[in-house]
Amino acid sequence: MDISKAEQRVLHLLAQGGHVLVEKDERGRVEDLAIVTRDGWHNTGLTLELFRKLKRRRLIASADSGPYRITRLGLLRVRSQLDNR
């Protein structure tokens, strides 16, 4: 499976211990997304379209109503790089 550069960036952040926080409206639809790195920094590289693509491919998932994290399949798909860029 081929993964775009934007997907690679997001998966690298998640593989290093980050997570995706999701805000939903009253109907349960995703309203706002934020990637939080393991150091607590917020990243703006995740769009709603990219989030849905990663979720549909099962590269990220949420467990027990928690934040979205990378799955084992996501870890296998992400290409490791020396400097993660």
From TrEMBL:
Q: Which family does it belong to?
A: Belongs to the UPF0386 family.
Q: Which lineage do the record's taxonomy fields give for this organism?
A: Bacteria, Pseudomonadati, Pseudomonadota, Alphaproteobacteria, Hyphomicrobiales
List the InterPro entries hit by this protein, alphabetically.
Answer: YjhX_toxin (IPR018654)
Q: Which domain of life is it from?
A: Bacteria
| Full protein name | UPF0386 protein SAMN05421512_11832
Q: Name one Pfam family in it.
A: YjhX_toxin
